[in-house]
Amino acid sequence: MTDTTTNPAAVQRHPHEPYIAAVVDAFDANGPIDDYVSSAETADDGTTCTLSAVLSWDDEASPDLYPDGLIVCWDLHRGWEYAGIRPDGSNDVPEDLLLPLWAAPEEVAAAVRALLAGEDPPFVALPDWHDDAVKAAVKAWEASE
Questions:
Q1: Which listed residue, 32, 35, 102, 115, has the most CB atoms within 10 A of its CB?
Q2: What is the largest CA-CA distance in the chain?
């Protein structure tokens, strides 16, 4: 089961949502995301397993490279990954985007813009995103699980 929100600024249910909102804002400043979902994956017994988010672009974002679209995923345990969307709506096996877990939102946006353009993601090396309150909330969430 997945507990999701598509507008973390409006309703914050999970501690990582301010970070995902900052990433979405970085894209909005440089070309919008088609859709995104911020969530917490929950096991059948109700235990929350991980915090995650999926950002997606449709087939118009990069029709030659990603004819059915692209997803970029963030997961508390795996970090940033990306995958092409298949014609049936499923996705390819995600590949590592080679970004730090708390990569600066502008760095995430630059890496994805490069993917959509068919270029290697730039090595920007911006300082990690820094919001101690959010990171502390995520650590507290991890300790409670």
A1: 115
A2: 45
